[in-house]
User: Fold this.
Amino acid sequence: MNGKLVTLIGGGGFLGRYVAQELLAAGARVRIAQRDPREALFLKPQGGLGQTQFAAVDVTKPDSVARAVQGSDAVVNLVGILSGDFDAVQARGARHVAEAAKATGVGALVHISALGADAESPSSYGRTKGEGEAAVLAAFPGAIILRPSLMFGREDQFVNRFAGMVASAPIVPVLRAGVKLQPLYVVDAAQAVVRALSDPAGFAGKVFELGGPDIITMGGLIRWISGAIGRDPTIIELPDFAGAAIASFGFLPLAPITRDQWRMLQRDNVVAQGDKGLAAFGIDPTPLAAVAPGWLVRYRRQGRFGVRAAAA
Assistant:
């Protein structure tokens, strides 16, 4: 990757910042392209002088995407949303990126999809992720599709969100407590992106599902977090009829998920049996317990000086 220009569409996001760091460490030049590039300026000190560029892009506007990828050796599309116009961003927007990459002669394209992507999914998120994959491969047949599971890391909105709930409330309701998850460490995901870019011919046109080493239920995850931060709330596993009613209200204090996310939770979020996953990139997945306690310490009653309770 040394000296190559890699454009990260949505590069200032959670996964994008880690991909940028891995690429900069490998000697690549990185162009961070997103709606407001100023929000990604924190990445500039990560590279050497002139190693990091910034550009404005709107994936719903083809001309904007074409300008952003011009001159790139490789492109990574990291754009995804949890609410809003899913079709415009995750389906048509993905197609715009692939078409621009093909038209400008980009050598490699990595498209970040999501575990659960399926054009027949009952959720708009999962459906448009699936449609986006098909559109990308139609426009750029050699594209590499990565489907990461729910990702955890120091700045995540996944483990941290639940830790905040556990730390602040004596009672924690859990929706879909029995659904299975396979959380993925964001650094492992970023390394998979870089290794895919390093061998685009070897991985061309393939789809990889990426998950961590542990499969855990939603209820089990909440209990693990409680133990990791030394808290002992009353955990109530809500029946599905109650969860559906709560989700129907959207983002309200008593509704931690949207209707669309509720639909996604009707299926386990785990890597398909037989998929090589991270092993295809020579990566040994990182367990949640190996890294998360290092930043979850701030949710303990006495911070780093608090005593960690035994996990349930």
